[in-house]
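Notes from hallway chat w/ T.B., transcribed later so I don't forget. T.B. wanted the structure written out for a chain they're using in a teaching module, and asked if we could keep both sequence and structure tokens in one place. Agreed to drop them here.
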Amino acid sequence: MNVAPRRPARAGDDLTSNGDDLLSIGEFAARARLSPKALRLYDRLGLLTPAHVDEVSGYRYYRPGQIERARTVALLRRLDMPLAAIAEVVELDGERAARSLDGYWAGVEERFAEQRTLARYLRGRLSGRNAELYATFEVRTVDVPEQYVISETRHVRGGELSAWIGASAERLERAAEECGGIAAPPFVVYHAEVTEESDGPAESCVPVVDVGAARAWAARQGRGSDVRVRVEPAHRLAYTRITKAQVSYPQIIAAFDAVEAWVAGQGLALAGPCREVYFADWTRTGPDDQVCDVAFPVVQVFPGG
């Protein structure tokens, strides 16, 4: 069936006739509880395209059925959701859109928990009450037996660290399945400072059961690989247990500082680089769940020694 092309709308045309039921941008803005300026922005970004744009005047017209989408966009913006994320959410169906929002909000709550921890740490530093801050961390010691580990060492900066830790642990844990299994919680050793200005290196380690199988696995990685098998000698650790929110830099610095201060007050000395021991499943924990031990190897300082 051939349909004759319609003449573009002109200023003064009756756009509600012939079933069009179109609203001017001003009318639509009032009903959607948005400003015309916001609607023009959402149009440019592809979040809310007008049903019709007059080719002569450039006037934008919307259908009443677009009001719900417009209000949804506005509400998502009030959650500080980035416009790119909003564009994805509004294109999903009801259940998938809700799940996408859940994922975004979980990230917001995690960041808020991290910021709350950081604010508490900075408040203590700025006020000179570091001792009070350190008192919130309970420091203990534990004796760790000798163990064999498969490890991956990498120069990384602060912004790359979290992703590398997760990826390296996943690679090493898969490899550990060929080495008799995982013998103890994975840990990361910092052989030098890791910040935005300093790149370590850091060493991701997974203790394994079968050292022979581990050596065979390492040999198969070939020359130039940054993985190896080594002995982790028996040692004593001074540690404090922290939550997922506290793991992020620079919040985690408060935990390291607290352990160092405790060690100095107990007549102990640091005997090796600091480390993080991850004993919980990261993917199944929330911001307030304990996931990690911040630790230093220590030795007793004898009087006159």
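Follow-up for T.B.: The mean pLDDT is 86. Might be a good example for the class.
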